[in-house]
Amino acid sequence: MAKIFCVANQKGGVGKTTTAVNLAAGLARLDQRVLLVDLDPQGNATMGAGINKATLEKSVYEVLLGMAELAAARVRSESGRFDVLPANRELAGAEVEMVELDNREKRLKDAIASVESDYDFVLIDCPPALSMLTLNGLCAAHGVIIPMQCEYYALEGLSDLVNTIKKVHAKLNPELKIIGLLRVMFDPRMTLSQQVSAQLEQHFGDKVFRTIIPRNVRLAEAPSYGMPGVTFDPASKGAQAYIAFGAEMVDRIKTF
């Protein structure tokens, strides 16, 4: 059965989509079968995987509203060697339309169940808000990967997210837990980054992933070529870090 993980943080610009796309590609390089679910109406994970969101016939929008099966809506990322349940702007309207539906917070969970045996990992890229879409992601997942920058404001937002995860665990998804915190856009030259990193390790212990993702230009350039950074420049420090993170994830789920 697939391990289903949300990549979530309600703070924007912390590298959620970069992490979701490159972890998917890193796992695919390790011969894992991966489905990447784009739950953000901006569709950045879709574009970053090399799929044109403007020409989609079906997307996660239709799947959530019961108008299409996930198996019919998924698309192959040729550059990343994984499957994608893509998103586009239509998804922004799904929140309003889902209010009337039964079991609205578990629509994604039910959809994934139909294809779960096809994959080793399902990664869900959540939008930067605690919305009905994010709630669907959290209800579908076994665990949460939290990418965060090592800066003061990131610590502030983290406590809100941890509280939300606790509430979802208590009321909607007893399987949900924090898999780990991933330090991203890390600059070792900054004293603050090192201080916050040390604080995270002290407070969260082994919930902090060993792998650290450095600030890296090649990772930032890759989406404009419609490729994950791991594929775009496998030798870059950022790509190497995500490949190492993929290996750490494979190792970690053995004791999951």
Please give a handful of descriptors for the protein shown.
P-loop_NTPase, alpha/beta, AAA_dom, ParA family protein, 8-stranded mixed β-sheet, DNA_Partitioning_ATPase, 256 residues, coiled coil, Rossmann fold
What does this structure look like?
With 256 residues, the chain is an alpha/beta fold. It has one domain: Rossmann fold (3-Layer(aba) Sandwich), CATH 3.40.50. The protein has twelve helices and eight strands. Strands 3-4-2-5-1-6-7-8 form an eight-stranded mixed sheet, with helices on both faces. α1 crosses α12 and α6 runs parallel beside α7. The chain starts with a strand and ends with a helix.
Q: Tell me about the biggest sheet?
A: 8 strands, mixed
The Cα radius of gyration reads 17 Å
Distance between the termini: 13 Å
Q: Name the shape in a single word.
A: globular
CATH class: Alpha Beta
Structural class: alpha/beta
Helix content: 40-55%
Strand content: 15-25%
Topology (SSEs and partners):
Layout: E1 3-7, H1 16-29, E2 34-38, H2 44-48, H3 60-64, H4 70-73, E3 75-77, E4 82-85, H5 94-98, H6 107-113, E5 121-125, H7 132-140, E6 143-148, H8 152-171, E7 177-186, H9 191-204, E8 208-214, H10 217-221, H11 229-232, H12 237-252
Parallel strand pairs: 1-5, 1-6, 2-4, 2-5, 6-7, 7-8
Antiparallel strand pairs: 3-4
Helix pairs in contact: 1-12, 6-7
Briefly say what this structure is.
With 256 residues, the protein is α/β, with parallel strands linked by helices.
